[in-house]
Amino acid sequence: MRNRPAVKILIPYLLGIILADRFDLSMIYLWTMTAIAVLPLLVLYKKRYLSASSVLIFLSLLSIGFLRYEVAMIPPNGLHKVLYEQVKVRGTVAKSQKERRGGSSLVMKGEINLISDPSVSALGKVSIRSWDEIFPQKYGDVVEMEGKLSRPRLPRNPGVFDYRKYLIRRGIFATMTVNDASDVRTIGTGGSAVLRRIKGFRARIETIIDEIMPSEKSASILKGITLGARQELSEETYQAFLRTGTSHILAVSGLHMGILAGWTFLLCNWIRKRLRLKNKSIAYVPIVPPIIVYACMVGFRTSVVRASTLVILVIVTTILDRDRDLFNLLAIAALGILMYRPGAIWDAGFRLSFGCVASIAYLMPYWERWLDKIRSDKWYRRWLYRVLQSIAVSLSAQIGAMLIIAHSFGRVSLMSIPANLAVVPLVGLIIPVGFVSYLAGLIYLPLAIPLAWGNYTLISGLNWIISYFAKFQFTHVPVGGFSFWYIVAFSGCYHVWLW
Q1: d(CA 496, CA 172)
Q2: Which residues pair with 150 in a beta bridge?
Q3: How far is it, in rounded angstroms, from Cα 16 to Cα 50?
Q4: pLDDT tens digits, one per residue of 281-295
Q5: What is the model's pTM?
Q6: Is residue 292 left, alpha or beta, with left meaning phi > 0 and alpha meaning psi from -120 to 50?
């Protein structure tokens, strides 16, 4: 790890977060421990006592990770005074979504006041749920409602999903359920004006999809693939994606960002050549704005933040003509996410997103040694090389994903590798055709209809493949008790076998 400073920082910081989740220490002790590690470090590092400095740097970063997680888990001041009481909540909608199993939810950030005594208040995020109706509110709306706040529910049995901890790790310490969506009243507009415009642009795209796609099912799948909107998928369709291990294509990730960045670069590079500009770096700069807009449009999920950060870092290193190491870039992206929200480490999306890319980065050099024997100037050898390279990337990602899925969900999909080998190439066509149809629809809606029929054909083929693999009786195998140490053992054995 000589040339991977971000990895060296990430490891102790991450270890501190993991330890903080296991052990609850007082804030005074944590601040003292951090100061004890940092203050001698300044003296020892200046005098070049490298061994002692390295140990203290490791302990300092571990303490910072521990402290950052503990701070994030502290509930808002005064929240205990307004829980289980009749309150008035007023704030700005940060997230609004339909729930796949019915109803909808809002995440609102604002002020909570007791109705009986308005001087008693608290500030923080609240999750508001309607089990039957759809909230009309969207990002940036200032809303107001009355009701009773409660703490997120605890798991009923040991080892099952902990919904309370899931919300707390996202900074949400209180929930409210409303019987009628009209109980939530819109009283103004707030939030970021830029984000409101981008969210409005997404709403226009969804309207275009509904109007140009021949069927409701194909429209819901296209929304899932290109916008990460899984809520409109039927339960049967969604379960088919889960059983075949292909649900990752319904989350915007590196594949989507790579296609958007690649096509933007090709267009900008073509314009550069027509203008006879010699500096090739000029073609990379225009890639950044579409990436940022797309990330804002689909929402800042872990996979989106990771993918967009990696693309931007690769562009920056290319423009500056610097060597780039994928592990180091991954560590930078992970540090950014975990500093902002340290609880993200327990999201399955975080582990899958980073685990798959790390698996690709680790395994592809070994694949390339074999693939180099196939590479040639002949057209059919070049075509075979590209096909096998795509298969190698997919296999590498699936190897990493299978271990994480076994640990997180207690099952392994037997159909994931063959299903993904068949599905991913189709998705690589559906995404760019979808993007072009949206642009055509924004200009003049009838222009998008021929493209939509082409995408309908591709989506029908994708749906048939997934349905075919999902019909097998033993699509996945339960592997209960697959702990983190199993991942370490399997990874170690695989590493030894490769060497």
Answers
A1: 43
A2: 175
A3: 22
A4: 888 888 889 898 888
A5: 0.83
A6: alpha
